[in-house]
Amino acid sequence: MTFCRVEKGLAANSLEAYRHDLAGLQEHCAAQGWPLERLSPEQLRQFLDSRYKARLSSRSIARQLVSIRNFFLFLVREGVVTADPTADIASPRQWKRLPKYLSADEIVSLLQAPDRATPLGLRDRAMVELLYASGLRVSELVHVRSADLNAELGVLRTLGKGNKHRLVPVGRPALEAIQTYVATARPQLLGGRSSEYLFVTGRGSLLTRQAFWHRLRLYGRQAGIRRPLTPHVLRHSFATHLLERGADLRSVQLMLGHSDISTTQIYTHVVRDRLRQVFDQHHPRA
Fold it and tell me: I need a surface site. Which of 63, 78, 122, 184 has the fewest CB within 10 A?
């Protein structure tokens, strides 16, 4: 894992996924009596078949195969093994799913859900505003430091995947919500303690991804949003709404922090699908 963290520059969440995937392979090999360092392509196929039988999705299996492939490439490079059992094994085909996103009216309802009469409500309102205004990943959101935000310029500096920094513009409504939170709610939550992080809990500690995810689901239900709501849905909404209003794909890619523009291009399918729905609904000869 030191190689992945230092040389590949993987984020903490990616490292945890690698660790989980390789632990699953190690447990399976131990149960079958297979030496991991002498794993054959046929044995690896049997392991992947067991994942299918466990009803894992093709996306999860493809991710596991990436972890295993990188592991054996490292072993070959270090001279621990002479052959890579993953060399001739293709990744499972994955169907591209269109990202789920909220409408502008649903966003407004969601932003009104937190109770602004309480410190936690003010904090959550600021977090949701910032999430929708910037398209941050939830792990980036909870790790925002107070020094990362330049309110005068309306710019946030964030550390994304691969330890890559990027600058993201932040709109006025989000800045105002953050300023209100910092001026009133944050000191109450800290209770005299100090923290480098912008968003803190009632104990003055760092808010976790899971805790924010849970609170966002509650606000989604309060706002009358029936489908499952996750922080990534707001990220999808950010990108989709930008493209619907004429933003160019390259700019959206930079704001999202995608290393490959092909990852951003899936949002163009959402926009085309939305245009088709509008045409079918409103054109007299649709």
Answer: 78
